[in-house]
Specification:
Layout (H helix, E strand, L loop, with lengths): L1 E2 L10 H6 L3 E5 L5 E4 L1 H7 L27 E4 L7 E9 L2 E8 L6 H12 L5 E6 L2 E5 L1 H6 L4 H4 L10 H12 L7 E6 L5 E10 L7 E8 L1 H15 L9 H14 L7 E8 L2 H8 L1 H16 L6 E7 L2 E6 L5 H13 L5 E3 L2 E3 L3 E8 L6 H18 L4 E3 L2 H23 L2 E10 L4 E13 L3 E3 L1 H11 L2 H21 L6 E5 L2 H5 L3 H12 L6 E6 H4 L3 H14 L2 E7 L6 H4 L6 E4 L1 H5 L3 H16 L3 E4 L5 H9 L4 E2 L8 E2 L10
Parallel strand pairs: 17-18, 20-22, 22-23, 23-24, 24-25, 25-26, 26-27
Antiparallel strand pairs: 1-3, 2-3, 2-6, 4-5, 5-6, 7-8, 7-11, 9-10, 10-11, 12-14, 12-17, 13-14, 15-16, 19-20, 19-27, 19-28, 20-21
Organism: Alkalibacillus salilacus
Pfam families: EAL, GGDEF, PAS_9
InterPro entries: Biofilm_reg_signaling, EAL_dom, EAL_sf, GGDEF_dom, Nucleotide_cyclase, PAS, PAS-assoc_C, PAS-like_dom_sf
């Protein structure tokens, strides 16, 4: 025990002085320490062999309140400095100072208990600070940031906080009351970012600058909330804003419009042929294609352009601050130009175009839903008319779209009710002048709308995906009808069925055709499948594999619409085909060029041991020309229009 004067009599028994748990110091009226127990020596690092020592050498008395009756927090001066709780009491001519640990030790348990029960939240870490300077903390807080406790005590809490959040933290520290916790971003020692929630609490002992705070790591919760928000407002595949975000942005744009002259445009962008590419090359390539398309569109971004993904292969673009219609035309053409060059997707050079519908606020609509709907309507017109172009919405377009929607609804009903019929157009052998087959053609007779042409409902069936079901029905009914004719004693001839691209590229097609032949008991040689030239060029490997399986099954395959593609001839020697079908345009328009093309097709096909059939034969001149060029087979109105199944007997020789 330190004692400055061995003859000094203390107002407390020395044995008690040494055995109490608190640090006790006696100071005279001049500020000199006259006695200190062992606890005080250790706390203040008093040298018991030193001479006269002033109390002010160990305690920062400048921070001590002049008038105080109870305990207050004070700083020690010996390194490392610490915060202690000091109580002063006058005993005779001496002053007795009782000192206790003023950091978290001794207060943490009660503080945590009090805060946890007040906040109803779990404890993670706790710290004590003076205007941002860390006085003390527990191991949990230091570990939360990846430090040792000794590494953070005495430093500024601002060292661990995001620069963007420091002003906010400074404001919160200065506040006297906090009714709720607040959240900031912090750095860990390794540089990682964490989100922390701060529950502040002010100590009222002495200095009002001393604060205590419960710190909770809420990184997982925040990241989950961010992920939920991302899913609600962003498209995960392209990382573009989604339809919800787009609608919200359009609404904000409308709310911020101040004058009647302000306008903006909504561009509805559809990737042409995407479904065909997706079905042909697979969904993985389709996803990569959408990402690449999104990147192309992002190149157009500026302060007046906002881009989002609508759904599937559809994108939305908001064009702000439109002053002239020419600005809409310019941007639409820029979008189209972005897709002039092919997109390289995992070794495939994919050429695609875009169809764009545009609506203008306020002419085309006064809210987000109307503007998107009308832009979609305008885009639909471009899809129907040829694609790779843009169309600005006019209210007259809406009626056409309504008709299409009505027709689509009726098509679904027709599929459910089997409201379709098959008609058959005879095919003739020019050498024998006998019927060698019939092409099965689907017809739709609506009770109220009358006859609906195939060029209206077939593309609609393609668009809605009903073509798969409809196509399978056609194959089944054609095979079933052909078998009925045979059972009735008619000569055995083939029936020819057209396959759509979607139908031909579906998995399990050959197996399904084989099952249909089994169910209808029709021999495979009496079924002929027709595929178009554009289908044949879409996915060479898949096409060859499917055609080989049809050949093994015994089903014949004809290449339809031949001559209308770009790379026709190179495929003739590669594909296992039985017949080439010359497109009607070459027969009905016998220009000098078309005549040359027909002659070349016939001669080349015969050189490859392929038969040739010409469709669209409507006049005697057409027939005479094909006879002279030794065409094998023909069909067309010159011989017969497509007829109902019951009339086929009139054409077949027994």
């Amino acid at each position: 025990m330190f004692k400055s004067d061995e003859k000094l009599t203390l107002p407390i028994d020395e044995w008690i002085l040494e055995n109490v748990t608190d640090a006790i110091i006696f100071v005279d009226e001049f500020g000199f320490i006259v006695s200190a127990n062992q606890h005080a020596e250790m706390m203040l690092k008093i040298d018991d062999e030193a001479g006269s020592l002033r109390f002010a050498e160990f305690i920062d008395l400048e921070e001590v309140l002049h008038a105080w009756e109870d305990e207050q927090l004070v700083w020690t001066k010996q390194q490392p400095i610490s915060l202690v709780i000091m109580k002063k009491q006058s005993i005779g001519h001496l002053f007795c100072y009782t000192l206790k640990d003023g950091g978290l030790k001794g207060k943490k348990d009660s503080l945590i208990y009090r805060l946890n029960h007040a906040r109803k939240s779990p404890y993670e870490g706790i710290l004590m600070h003076d205007r941002g300077k860390l006085i003390d903390c527990d191991y949990a807080f230091a570990s939360m940031l990846g430090y040792k406790r000794s590494e953070v005590i005495g430093t500024s809490v601002f060292n661990f906080v995001y620069p963007e959040d420091r002003d906010y933290l400074a404001q919160e520290i200065q506040r006297e009351q906090h009714d709720a916790p607040y959240q900031i971003r912090a750095y860990k020692k390794n540089g990682d970012t964490i989100y922390v929630e701060i529950l502040p609490e002010q100590l009222r002992e002495g200095s009002n600058n001393i604060r205590v705070a419960i710190i909770r790591n809420v990184t997982e919760r925040v990241e989950n909330e961010q992920q939920i928000e991302f899913m609600a407002y962003y498209d995960q595949l392209t990382n573009l804003p989604n339809r919800n975000y787009f609608q919200m942005t359009v609404k904000e744009e409308i709310d911020n419009i101040e004058t009647e002259d302000e306008r903006f445009a909504v561009h509805f962008i559809d990737i042409d042929y995407f479904k065909h590419i997706n079905d042909t090359l697979g969904y993985h390539i389709g996803d990569e294609l959408l990402k690449a398309c999104a990147l192309r569109l992002k190149q157009l971004l500026d302060e007046d352009i906002f881009i989002a993904r609508m759904a599937s292969d559809e994108f939305l673009l908001l064009q702000r601050n439109v002053r002239k219609d020419e600005e809409i035309d310019k941007l639409s053409n820029q979008i189209i130009e972005q897709f002039r060059n092919p997109l390289n997707i995992e070794g495939y050079d994919i050429y695609t175009t875009v169809s764009i519908g545009v609506s203008i606020y306020p002419d085309s609509g006064t809210n987000a839903s109307e503007l998107i709907e009308h832009a979609d309507s305008a885009m639909y017109v471009i899809k129907e008319e040829g694609r790779n172009e843009y169309q600005i919405f006019r209210h007259s377009l809406k009626e056409g779209v309504k008709e299409q929607l009505q027709l689509e609804a009726e098509l679904h009903k027709a599929m459910q009710n089997h409201d379709f019929d098959l008609f058959f157009q005879p095919q003739y052998d020019l050498k024998t002048n006998r019927i060698i087959g019939f092409e099965a053609l689907c017809r739709w007779f609506h009770d109220e709308m009358g006859v609906i042409p195939p060029d209206q409902f077939i593309p609609l069936a393609e668009k809605t995906g009903l073509i798969i079901e409809l196509g399978e029905w056609v194959i089944y009914e054609a095979c079933l009808q052909n078998k009925k004719w045979q059972d009735e004693g008619l000569p055995k001839v083939k029936v020819s069925v057209n396959l759509s691209a979607k139908q031909f590229l579906q998995r399990g097609l050959v197996n399904r055709v084989s099952q249909i032949l089994y169910e209808t008991v029709l021999e495979a040689q009496y079924l002929e499948i027709e595929i178009t030239e554009s289908m044949a060029m879409s996915n060479e490997y898949h096409i060859i594999e499917t055609l080989n399986r049809f050949s093994e099954l015994g089903v014949q395959v004809a290449l339809d619409d031949f001559g209308t593609g770009y790379s026709s001839l190179q495929y003739l020697s590669q594909f296992p085909l039985n017949k080439i079908k010359i497109d009607r345009m070459f027969i009905q328009n016998q220009s000098e060029q078309n005549i040359a093309i027909v002659k070349s097709i016939i001669h080349l096909s015969h050189a490859l041991n392929l038969k040739v059939i010409a469709e669209g034969v409507e006049t005697e001149d057409n027939l005479e020309f094909l006879l002279n060029e030794q065409c094998d087979e023909v069909q067309g109105f010159y011989f017969s229009k497509p007829v109902a199944a019951q009339r086929v007997k009139d054409f077949v020789d027994f």
